[in-house]
Amino acid sequence: MLNRDTLKHGVSVLCATDRDFASVVRRIGAPPLWARKPGFATLVRIILEQQVSLASAKATYQRLQQALGRVTASRVANTSLAELRRYGITRQKSEYCLDLAQFIVAGKLDLPALARADDTTARLALRAVRGIGCWTADIYLLMALRRPDVWPNGDLALAESARHVKRLSARPTDEQLFRIATRWKPWRSVAARILWHHYLSERRGRAVVSEGRGARR
Prior knowledge:
The protein has helices at 4-17, 19-28, 40-48, 54-68, 73-77, 81-86, 91-105, 111-114, 119-127, 134-144, 156-165, 174-181, 188-216.
């Protein structure tokens, strides 16, 4: 399980073996742990983050949280599809959240038990629920269960960051990036954090430049 100490060690190992990672960490520092609390609420939030910005997903989650008080499986299971839609959740994601809630209420998915399961078992248990694919399951393993060697294939931010950090001529495909990521075993979760850290740093830098240009107009 990743914590601040093991994250620091993983960063050190990767920087010693990958000069591009070493350059990123020298320039902007080591990445945050970005840990999330394991459980239903976090998994719902990850579902909401599918194919949208983190800011948009956060706003939607906050509306849901405000309406329900606490985002629990029992409360969501007792919420209608129409109600979820009123909180700004798409029909498809509303169905996914309801299915997940009903799975847990029915005892078909034991989220606390996943913390004791190996990566493959935990991933398969999550993917048995409609709406939880490889990316969603892997983000839960990486962020909530804090497994050290998970690669969330299909993450566009990681692909774009890898293109820049590794100086590739084009954004790598999922298959190409997965092959590249095998070099970072057994610390692929740490490699992902370094690349996300770089991606966010670049976005902040572009925002500052844009604001500066606006001020000079």
